[in-house]
Every structure is written in structure tokens, then in C-alpha cells.
Specification:
Elements (H helix, E strand, L loop, with lengths): L5 H5 L11 E6 L6 H12 L6 H13 L6 H18 L6 E5 L6 H10 L4 E6 L6 H16 L9 E4 L7 H17 L2 H4 L3 E7 L3 H5 L12 H21 L5 E6 L14 H10 L5 E4 L8 H18 L3 E3 L7 H19 L19
Parallel strand pairs: 1-2, 1-3, 3-4, 5-6, 5-7, 7-8
Bound molecules: coproporphyrin III (HT9) and fe (ii) ion.
EC number: 4.99.1.9
GO molecular function, one term: metal ion binding
Pfam family, one: Ferrochelatase
Length: about 350
């Protein structure tokens, strides 16, 4: 038990980040040069039954960008922004970084934390939503990394912040991205533009088993959470512009075997329909991604924007949360809120997944 006597700690003059002595940014990882691409894809898809053709196609996406995913640079920029923000607020909390699929690997980072004498760690994953891929798999990675710490070291205890999609700072950052994209559209279609929110498709079975079993919304938490963010961002944009625009949620980056159903519609198919219906313009907002991953660089900026261009449909891609100050402040808030609840012995329900939460992997 981390806090056998919560009252005594509550009344002390602890640091606002106590009981934590480090923050861990946990991410997916990505290749940095052409030689990295195949080993990276092997790491990602080990035991996942992804067809060879799909892997070759995804490899090409990476080669188109010189074998370098944007994700590691995005994470470095986010860590720098978090460190600066923490320092500006007088908070002394070192930030570590570990990935599931590429260097720096999570297990090495956790071992390094043990060597540095770090005992209690708060972890933020670069995914804001519930599902096996976006939450449970990261928890399993943490457990495995802690278990792999050599016996001569004391492994740190790691707590993971739960889904944070509805944090007002995350919503505000995405809304700002949509506002900037709208401003960049031609004047005559700006007010009639449709807001198309995009996230990573997942198998329907994964989506339906996402979230805590007891209060799981119909269809699963993954879709429900994205719809909530889409509505919140659209409402902020309406308030800021004085114009109500229609909005919807679509999907990108479908993978897996063709006979396994995944969430639809695909963004490209939907753009075809919207163009046929005479939609004047669209803004694509990648709310499913906290920063500009390869899915954003390829599936949206390369593929979907080309689809829109071919259809003669004016389209702009909105910025993801990235290092937007509202998102960076949201991270500080999530850290301080969790630390204070921990000191008071009041767990944050969403940070503790019940049995059966986000189980379905395919
Ligand atoms: C929900 C979700 C997120 C969002 C949450 C989060 O951020 O974690 C996400 C993120 C990412 N996915 C990424 C890359 C890949 N995902 C793949 C495969 C898959 N993703 C899935 C789901 C998700 N993925 C699923 C159900 C599969 C099928 C295989 C399986 O069941 O596990 C494959 C294999 C090839 C392919 O099949 O596409 C690759 C290369 C990158 C790195 C991008 C970069 O380099 O910038 C990132 C951030
Ligand atoms: Fe993925």
C-alpha cells in the first residue's frame, strides 16, 4: 500500500508532486532511418497476424518520409515543453521517456529509473482514450518492464494516468487547431465547412470491449469518448466563430485481415460521399492522435488530402494537440491532480482499471 496513513501525509508540507519522484512519458515509438523500418514493423506486429501486403504498404508510408516517423521528434518536443512548464511552476519532477516499439525502449528506461533510485513513477501515455491498443496494452507493457528489472535493483512502482480525452486543455488545443484550419479555408466556404474528426480505426471487437465493463456505453468507450471530444471541440469552435457547423467522426489506418470488421467509415470513403453530396469544404481534425504521428503525416496529409484534392473538395488538416500550451498545462494538471489524490488516499477511479477493462484485442 502506497499510503498506509493518508492523513499524516495530507497535513505535511509535501511537494505538490509527492509521492512521485518522476514522470514517465510512455509512447509507441517509431523508426528514425530506412534501416529501422522493417525491424520496427516486426516489433509492432509480432504475433498480431497482420497480412504481409499490409505490412509492405505501411513500410512504403515510412519510406516515403525517408524511413523517419515524426513521432519521436514529437515526443522529444513534448518532453521539452513539459520540463519547461514544470520548471516555470516551481515543480521539481524529472521526466523520463520510454516506448513500446522503438528506442528508447520502455524496459531500458524503467531499468534506468531503478538505477537512478526512482521509487514512485507517474506515467502518462501518448494516447488519450480507452481501448486495448490505447490503454490496456500500455499497462501490460509497464507491468512487463517492471518485472524485467534485474534482481539486484529495486524496481519502481508505476502508476498510469487513465484516459484523459475529456480534459478541457486537450479539447481546447484541438479546438484551436480547428479554428486555425478554418481560418485557412477560402472565405466563401469557411462558414459552410464540415468538421470531420478522425481517429485510428480498431477492430469492432476491440472497440466494443473498450472501457470498464460495468459502465461501458453501447458500442464501447473508444467510440463514445471520441464522439464526446468531437462534440466538445465542435461546441468550442461554434462559440468562438458564432457559426454552427455539422460534425462527425470517421476513421483512418485500418489494418488487420480483410475479413475482420474494423470501425468505419474510412476517411477517404467518407470524403467521396461528402463531395457527392455537395459539401462545400471540410476540416480534418485528428483528435484520436495527441501529436502528428505517421498516421497523420501519411493517412491524412498525404492520402486523405489527395483524395479531397481529386474530388475538388476544399480541405484543411487541423493541428493535433502536440505541444499546444493548453495541452502542456493539462498534463501538469493531470499530474498534480493524481499526486494530490494519491497523497489523500483517494484514488482517481478512471486511473484504476477494473478487471475486464479494455480486454478485447481483436
Ligand atoms: C488505437 C491505436 C492507436 C492510437 C493509440 C496510440 O497512440 O497508442 C495506434 C497508434 C499508433 N500506431 C502506430 C503504428 C502502427 N500501428 C499498427 C497496427 C495497429 N494499430 C492499432 C491501433 C492503434 N494504433 C491496431 C489495432 C493495429 C493492428 C495490430 C494490432 O492489433 O496491434 C502498425 C502495423 C502496421 C499496420 O497494420 O498498420 C503500425 C506500424 C503508431 C506509430 C506511428 C508513427 O510512426 O508515427 C502509433 C502512434
Ligand atoms: Fe497503430
Amino acid at each position: 500500500m502506497p499510503n498506509p496513513d493518508p492523513l499524516s501525509t495530507d497535513l505535511s508540507t509535501d511537494q505538490p508532486t509527492d509521492p512521485y519522484d518522476a514522470l514517465l512519458l510512455l509512447s509507441f515509438g517509431g523508426p528514425e532511418k530506412p534501416e529501422d523500418v522493417v525491424p520496427f514493423l516486426e516489433n509492432v506486429t509480432r504475433g498480431r497476424g497482420i497480412p504481409r501486403e499490409r505490412l509492405e504498404a505501411v513500410g512504403e508510408h515510412y519510406f516515403l518520409f525517408g524511413g523517419r516517423s515524426p513521432i519521436n521528434d514529437q515526443n522529444k518536443a513534448l518532453i521539452a515543453a513539459i520540463e519547461k512548464d514544470l520548471a516555470e511552476h516551481g515543480l521539481d519532477l524529472p521526466v523520463y521517456w520510454g516506448n513500446r516499439n522503438w528506442d528508447p525502449y520502455l524496459a531500458e528506461t524503467v531499468e534506468q529509473m531503478a538505477r537512478d533510485g526512482v521509487r514512485r513513477v507517474l506515467c502518462l501515455a501518448t494516447s488519450a482514450y480507452s481501448s486495448w491498443s490505447s490503454c490496456r496494452q500500455y499497462r501490460d507493457n509497464l507491468e512487463a518492464a517492471v518485472a524485467a528489472v534485474p534482481d539486484d535493483l529495486v524496481a519502481p512502482e508505476i502508476d498510469k494516468i487513465g484516459a484523459y480525452y475529456d480534459h478541457p486543455g486537450f479539447v481546447a488545443a484541438n479546438a484551436d487547431g480547428v479554428l486555425a484550419a478554418l481560418a485557412d479555408l477560402p472565405d466563401d466556404v469557411r462558414d459552410s465547412a464540415r468538421l470531420v474528426f478522425v481517429t485510428h480505426s480498431v477492430p469492432i471487437s476491440m472497440s466494443e470491449s473498450s472501457g470498464p465493463p460495468r459502465d461501458r456505453p453501447e458500442g464501447g468507450a473508444y467510440v463514445a469518448q471520441h464522439l464526446e471530444v468531437a462534440a466538445a471541440v465542435a461546441a468550442r469552435v461554434a462559440a468562438a466563430t458564432g457559426v454552427e457547423r455539422p460534425h462527425e467522426l470517421v476513421y483512418c489506418s485500418r489494418s488487420g485481415a480483410p475479413h475482420v470488421p474494423w470501425l468505419e467509415p474510412d476517411v477517404n470513403d467518407r470524403l467521396e460521399e461528402l463531395a457527392a453530396e455537395g459539401t462545400p469544404a471540410v476540416v480534418l481534425s485528428p483528435v484520436g492522435f495527441v501529436s502528428d504521428h505517421m498516421e497523420v503525416a501519411y493517412d491524412l496529409d498525404t492520402e486523405a488530402l489527395a483524395t479531397a484534392e481529386r474530388l475538388g473538395l476544399p480541405a484543411r488538416r487541423a493541428a493535433s494537440a502536440g505541444t499546444h500550451p493548453a495541452f502542456v498545462a493539462a498534463i501538469r494538471d493531470l499530474v498534480l491532480a493524481r499526486a494530490s489524490r494519491e497523497r489523500a488516499g483517494q484514488p482517481v477511479p478512471r486511473d484504476h482499471c477494473p478487471l475486464g477493462c479494455c480486454t478485447g484485442s481483436r
